[in-house]
Each structure stands twice: as structure tokens, then as C-alpha cells.
Specification:
With 232 residues, the protein is an alpha/beta fold. It has nine helices and eight strands. Helix 2 packs antiparallel against helix 4, helix 2 runs parallel beside helix 9 and helix 3 runs parallel beside helix 9. The relative contact order is 0.20. The N terminus is likely disordered.
């Protein structure tokens, strides 16, 4: 296993799942309340989508473990829904319900590198083991605070962790920091060069927050299908 080869050991009495997945969602101040709700509801709806349930059940073990956290500035990261094993509609529904009801924790700057470090820390608490561990970072802008994301990314990849990205495009640049949402070369390219990494890493794009729910379903299906395959 990649994780074991990198020196990571599963916790004692761990359950085996097809995938351990940390969903790390950007709730920085560039994400207004309407966009926040679209993003949060998009994640919740994805776990009620029959296509996602089918993807989970089609894995070798038919179950994954998911942890959902939100992040903003260097000192602003919080687990919103802790590790949950999802293997059917009922367990997926419980996860989605908890996610929908939780309040927004903060709205500060954008510390992608620190968010990756925080996401990595969650695997030690999962109580699960798997051939694949993935962090799913969604965001609408570049890093503006704390550790540079490439440093955190490289450290995570060295532990056998894959980081995927879901870029949410903004129609107009931010008035006070146009480079944040519209960096040279585009935000997708920024994530590709600075955020994602590891075996099979990829970036998907949501054209705006209204299309986020569609994008996250496709992203989850791809991640779950990759984790359940024999070609890791």
C-alpha cells in the first residue's frame, strides 16, 4: 500500500474501507452567504445522489469513510461532520443531515496550505484503514495567508495521500484583490500547480457556485471509483 510504504500505520482495531476521504471546503470571506449555502447544500445533496451511493457500493468493500471540514484563515479550521462510514442510503443521509444543519464557523482569509495540514491530521483520528487516502480541496481563490500550499501538498503526498481540487470560478474579479480569484493563467491552473498532487490527482471546475452541486457529484464518483479499482 502507498500509505504503508510511506511509514503510515493504521490505528489498532481499525475497520477497512475502500477510501478515507477528507472534504475540505473553503469558507473564506470571498465566499458570500449565498455562495456558502450553495456549496454546503451541494455537498449534502451529493451524498443523497443515487449515483454516489452506487459508486460507494460498487467498491471492493462497499464502504468509505468521510470527514467534512471547513477552513478559512491560518487559525480558522473546523471539523463540521466527523468521520462517518458511509455504505448505503441511510448512512449517507445521516451524514448529509448533519452537514445541512451545522452553522457557518467563520469567514476570514484563505490559508490553503494550513487547511491541507489540518486535513492530513484528521487521518490519524479516523479509526479506519484503506489503500487510499484522499483530501478533496474546494475553493474559489488563491492562497493569501499562512504556509504556501505547495509545502503542505508535498508533505501530504510524501505520506501517500492524494489531494484533488475543485475550483469554483467567480464571474468577476474581487474588487479589492482581483488576483485572488483571477490569477494569471487562471485559478484551475493555480490549483493544478500549487494544490493538487499524489497518485491520480486531478482538478475539476465548477463554472460558478450554482453549478457546484453537479461538479461535486462528478468529483465524488471519480474519487470513489478510483479508490475501488484494482489499478491504484
Amino acid at each position: 500500500f502507498l500509505a504503508l510504504a510511506a511509514g503510515w500505520a493504521p490505528p489498532v482495531n481499525a475497520q477497512t474501507v475502500d477510501l478515507q476521504l477528507v472534504l475540505a471546503a473553503d469558507v473564506s470571506r470571498s465566499v458570500d452567504e449565498g455562495e456558502f449555502r450553495l456549496q454546503r447544500d451541494g455537498y449534502a445533496a451529493a451524498f443523497s445522489d443515487p449515483r454516489v451511493i452506487r459508486a460507494i457500493r460498487s467498491g471492493q468493500l462497499g464502504r468509505i469513510a468521510v470527514c467534512y471540514l471547513e477552513w478559512s484563515g491560518e487559525w480558522a479550521q473546523k471539523v463540521i461532520v466527523d468521520w462517518t462510514v458511509i455504505n448505503d442510503e441511510e448512512t449517507a443521509g445521516v451524514f448529509a443531515d448533519q452537514l445541512s444543519k451545522a452553522p457557518r464557523p467563520f469567514a476570514e482569509r484563505t490559508a490553503i496550505g494550513t487547511a491541507i495540514d489540518y486535513a492530513v491530521e484528521q487521518f490519524a483520528r479516523s479509526g479506519q484503514q484503506s489503500q487510499r487516502r484522499t483530501i478533496d480541496v474546494s475553493g474559489d481563490g488563491t492562497n493569501t495567508n499562512g504556509k504556501h500550499p505547495t509545502t503542505a501538498r508535498d508533505a501530504a503526498v510524501a505520506q501517500g495521500i492524494t489531494i484533488n481540487g475543485l475550483v469554483i470560478l467567480s464571474p468577476e474579479p474581487m474588487p479589492w484583490n482581483a488576483w485572488h480569484t483571477h490569477p494569471p493563467g487562471g485559478l484551475e491552473n493555480y490549483y493544478r500547480e500549487n494544490v493538487v498532487g499524489g497518485p491520480g490527482a486531478f482538478v475539476l471546475v465548477a463554472e460558478d457556485f450554482n453549478s457546484f452541486a453537479y461538479a461535486i457529484v462528478n468529483k465524488l464518483i471519480r474519487e470513489i471509483a478510483d479508490a475501488g479499482s484494482d489499478t491504484q
